[in-house]
Amino acid sequence: MMTPHLQTMSSNAMQRQSASPAYKTQLGACYCGDSLELLHLLDDDSVNLVLTSPPFALLRKKEYGNKEQHEYEDWLSEFGRLVKKKLRDDGSLVLDLGGAYERGSPSRSLYNFRVLIRFCDDLGFTLAEDFYWYNPSKLPTPIEWVNKRKLRAKDAINTVWWFGKTEWPKADVSKVLAPYSERMKKLLEDPDGFYQPAKRPSGHDVGRGFGKDNGGAIPPNLLQIPNSESNGTYLRGCKAIGGKGHPARFPAKLPEFFIRFLTDPGDLVVDIFAGSNTTGYVAEIEGRRWASFEAEREYVAASVFRFLPPDAPETTMREKYEQILASESVDLSRDRPMQERLFAVTS
Ligand SMILES: C[S@@+](CC[C@H](N)C(=O)[O-])C[C@H]1O[C@@H](n2cnc3c(N)ncnc32)[C@H](O)[C@@H]1O
Fold first, then answer.
1. Would you state the pLDDT for residue 19?
2. Residues carrying an active site annotation
3. 187 and 336 share a domain?
4. Weakest-pLDDT range from 40-44, 131-135, 243-247
């Protein structure tokens, strides 16, 4: 169990600037506003991980608005430049970007690759590793090229660029081991029966070292995570206020992977396009300090539901929501810690 009263921000910067959060918890705080302004409130060289999913350069406008592809790189670079200042030298930026098509043509946009090159060449990030998030529950789109004309396969992958501020971002892959395959489990049960000294087609020797149980397999950079979570308390709250959930929520497993992989308990995790604040929620559960920034007050207000007890009455949910809409700051920092609540549910 982690220390309950870690300071929310890396310093008293937030107080100095008298920015009050929309709500705060034991470990973090969610702010409503433009991240370009809110990022200034963080100390330089203080953040361990910025994990975020900006509005994509989509042709079809989402309800929260997004930039046209040609202005996208310039727009996102402004955030990237500031993020780099705020990261520690061993800090990481993880950027999730969905793919897109060119207008009126079955040709893919290069915008996500342009962002990658721009961030490295102009902003000075290093590409620590390129990840691909495969979402098997994605619907086949765009309808015109995929369903109607049958010219393209379903687009089910987002590119997730993991940037380092330097060449040596903190990371420990042993914290995110994947379950072993059935074949590997058999090998571990009976290494001698299974082991036949052999050379692989690549010419590498397959030695007995492969029979050692490391607690799981090294995960690949293809993350298979369906976006089909039920988001219990969050969606219950949305229903109580007569709304629907944020349209582009992360599945919790995505931030969970990078938070465990790239940070330690007590580290500071920031999401600058927080939406429904999945990142802050996972950070809280994982015992990391966090700060989340979101421009739309209604999204911020609804995201508070994630931090309420699963049995919170609808009246309480509506009350907190209304308080945040009215720009009152909600303090949940004295509530029962999230980890304890989860433990109570699972034990
Ligand atoms: C793709 S969504 C993020 C969803 C989020 N990952 C989740 O799990 O809910 C992007 C969000 O960025 C917000 N946004 C756009 N421009 C912003 C800005 N300048 N500052 C803060 N938030 C912004 C949008 O309102 C939108 O909710």
1. 80
2. 53-54, 96
3. no
4. 243-247
Residue 1, domain member (yes or no): no
176, 261 contact by CB (below 8 A): yes
pTM over 0.90? The answer is no
Which atom of ligand 1 is found nearest the CA of 274?
Answer: 5
Overall average pLDDT of the 270-293 stretch:
97
Q: What is the pLDDT of residue 283?
A: 98
Single-letter amino acid, residue 133: W
Residues 280 and 301 sit within 8 Å (Cβ to Cβ)? no
Q: Are residues 281 and 226 in the same domain?
A: yes
Which of 53, 118, 125 has its CA nearest to residue 83? 125
- Measured from the Cβ of residue 73, the count of other Cβ atoms closer than 10 Å reads 18
Q: How far is the CA of 185 from the centre of ligand 1 (A)?
A: 42
Pocket of ligand 1 (CB under 6 A): 34-36, 53-55, 64, 246, 248-250, 273, 275-276, 278, 293-296, 299
Give the position, in ligand 1's atom list, of the atom nearest the Cα of 279: 8
**End residue of a domain, out of 168, 202, 217:** 217
Residues 209, 86 within the same domain: no
In angstroms, how far is CA 38 from the centroid of its own chain? 19
The pLDDT of residue 240 is: 92
DSSP 8-state symbol, 145: I
Number of domains the chain is built from: 2
Domain span at residue 198?
Answer: 179-217
Q: Strand pairing partners for 31?
A: 293
Cα(271) to ligand 1 centroid in Å equals 9
Domain termination site, one of 168, 201, 217:
217
Q: What is the mean pLDDT of residues 138-145?
A: 89
275: CA distance to ligand 1 center in Å? 5
Atom of ligand 1 nearest to the CA of 56: 1
We report the CATH number of the domain holding residue 111 as 3.40.50.150
